[in-house]
Amino acid sequence: MTALRKLNRDQARPYNFALSPILTNLSNEPLLLLGPFIKDSRRWQTMQYVNIYDGKIHTLEPPTLLAVHHTFDLMFAQFWKHPEFKSLAPDGTPCKGDTRGLLKRARSREQESS
């Protein structure tokens, strides 16, 4: 709220609805985009977002910043390759992105200390 109130004190209020795309920031600049809530998801790519840290206006398509926005396809691909940290591979080693087979229960911290 502090960053938003610096941009527009009267418009920044708690409990308002907004959109904030999930981004991988490829620059060294602080980045958090915020835009008005719009139900039509077809408009999310081209609508204007404000970076709450500097007040500059950006769009996702065409890209106006050095960042990659996460689509459902990208999120699904990352999840599919994500290792399962709570389990062990069938051979007892930590899981990796390509681990296959019946996973084993990882030891709890209580079991490791005893």
Descriptors:
four-stranded antiparallel beta sheet, 114 residues, two-stranded antiparallel sheet, alpha+beta, 3 helices
Strand neighbour order, sheet with most strands: 1-3-4-5
Count of separate structural domains: 2
**How would you sum up the major sheet?**
4 strands, antiparallel
Mean pLDDT: 80
Count the beta strands.
Answer: 8
H/E series, N to C?
HEEEEEEHEEH
Number of helical stretches of at least 4 residues: 3
Characterization of the model:
This protein is of the alpha+beta class. The protein has 2 domains: 2-69, no CATH class; 83-113, no CATH class. Helix content is 18%, strand content 18%. The protein has 3 helices and 8 strands. The protein has helices spanning 2-7, 72-80, 109-113, and strands spanning 18-19, 23-25, 33-36, 49-51, 57-58, 67-69, 87-88, 104-105. The protein has a 4-stranded antiparallel beta sheet with strand order 1-3-4-5, with no helix packed on it. A two-stranded antiparallel sheet has the order 2-6. Strands 7-8 form a two-stranded antiparallel sheet. A hairpin with a 5-residue loop joins strand 4 (49-51) and strand 5 (57-58). The longest helix has 9 residues, at 72-80. The radius of gyration is 21 Å and the shape is elongated. The chain starts with a helix and ends with a helix. The mean pLDDT is 80.
